[in-house]
Amino acid sequence: MGDLLRRCLMKxxxxxxxxKRRRGAAVALWGVMALLVLWALFNLRAIGDxxxxxxxxxxxRFIRRALIVGMLVSLCASLLGVTLVLxxxxxxxxxxxxxxxxxxxxxxxxxxxxxxxxxxxxxQGLRGAVARLCAGIAANPLPFTLVIVVVxxxxxxxxxxxxxxxxxSAIALISTSALAVGVIVTSMTSGMNVxxxxxxxxxxxAMSTSDVYVSVTLSAVVLVLFALFYPRIFAVTFDEMxxxxxxxxxxxxxxxxxxxxxxxVVVGMRMMGTLLISSxxxxxxxxxxxxxxxxxxxxxxxxxxxxxxxxxxxxxxxxYSLPTGAGIVAINLVVFIxxxxxxxxx
Amino acid sequence: xxxxxxxxxxxxxxxxVAVDRVSFEVARGDYLVIVGENGSGKSTxxxxxxxxxxxxxxxIVYGDGLEKNRIGYLPQQTAAQRDFPASVEEVVLSGCVNRxxxxxxxxxxxxxxxxxxxxxxxxxxxxxxxxxxxxxGQQQRALLARALCATDAMLLLDEPVTGLDPNAxxxxxxxxxxxxxxxxxxxxxxxxxxxxxxxxxxxxLVMNRGMDFFGSLEDYRTRFAEGMVKGHG
Lengths: 346, 233
Ligand SMILES: Nc1ncnc2c1ncn2[C@@H]1O[C@H](COP(=O)(O)OP(=O)(O)O)[C@@H](O)[C@H]1O
Ligand SMILES: [Mg+2]
Hints:
heterodimer, A: 346 residues, mainly alpha, ABC transporter involved in vitamin B12 uptake, BtuC, B: 233 residues, alpha/beta, 6-stranded mixed β-sheet, 3-stranded antiparallel β-sheet, globular, binds adenosine-5'-diphosphate
């Protein structure tokens, strides 16, 4: 017993302990990398075939559309992700996507509303109008979802800034509640059908032409705002108190970032899946922070990683008919492991 | 006229009073040290001087050409900053945001100002280094260079030497003293480290929610003689 205690204590005070742990991590990470490389070497042929097949897929309009929308959304998500991760707000993206899922299922369920089903004491005209409105929302659920998610983005920001409840628990509360609402609404109406499955895990088939316009506009807005306000965004991200003291309206920038995040989440979530969209925000920034040590390098690297991982993930998704979101997260995970391995051996 | 006048200021958070009816003035060229127990309202008072928290009552008046946004601030460090991926140059340059006005990007004058302050604080050779790899003393000097980019007139420093080893702390005090004496920068500093901070101070403010003492260093010494014994020891 005493011996065990002594050994524990010695472990505590072992001056090489952090270094040993680091070396252990490096060995493990490089082990994973080596396995992946070996696998790739033995499957070179299959990998080549996959690229050829993907090239053939690109002949389809809807695939090209999905690729464009996805790369633009990935770009936006990665830029926003750098500040969200560094400000410890990355849970907000996750929370928003769950809210998006809830809102989307509610919007779809509104399609089941008929004027006969509404309470009889309401005047006939009002019942008809409500039913038409519901049908309209169900037919085109994106605007409705966007409104709900934007409202929740403001709410989540408020909570994490002002509430006495810990920010992350408040977000978990809201996001799980939204998920529960979504699941209850679906099982009471359509049941867990293919649509719902696609909403959760993502599908490239979901992109319409209007999505292309929306995503092009969104990414233009995000890129321009990010570039123009880059010095101020850095200031607010690095040290909000100092930025406020020097007259930067930090609250405004936080709102702006939450708003753009909400829009990115809504546009991207049907392709990535609501459960996985937040990975687009978190992964590229985390991977980049492993290797790069200036804000500018982290930002640029995140953007490149994000777009490249999306393209590769989509290839996986097309060729092996995986859910899109899952393929992209898998590629991002590989990049993260590779960057961590390099970081651990430096 | 005073650079900044605190007039009967009371600050409260959801009913609990953090700063209770405090009044004092800071004149150009002053070196004021604020001391007091943990939770006695020092940081809150400092944030009010920067316009970051609104007093419940009382007024804060800026004068002698000082603008609220043109004060250099060195906040009490937060954990988030310590592992932030940013180069020293990026950090120092970010002190220039209050000089940008309606501009979107830093201009040449901003970059020169940042470079000058990095030289002044001897962090110029670290400019491409990552902020998170610096020692505590180097980090504080980088943040001080940033604060100097934001001001020519006045620095507010919140426990700047906490966590520094004695040598780094002594060096830091030396820099502050030289800024105050040779460059005419007005200094207000919150400090726990009485002996080090007091040596250079012209005035002392003792916070205890209310104001326990405000006056010159000599008056403070005669008033709190036993505290000085501890300070020298
Ligand atoms: N943002 C805040 N919300 C609620 N209470 C606060 C806040 N900031 C400070 N306080 C309270 O005000 C009091 C003074 O805090 P502070 O000014 O940080 O003290 P000091 O810097 O002297 O240690 C403390 O009781 C603290 O709990
Ligand atoms: Mg304090």
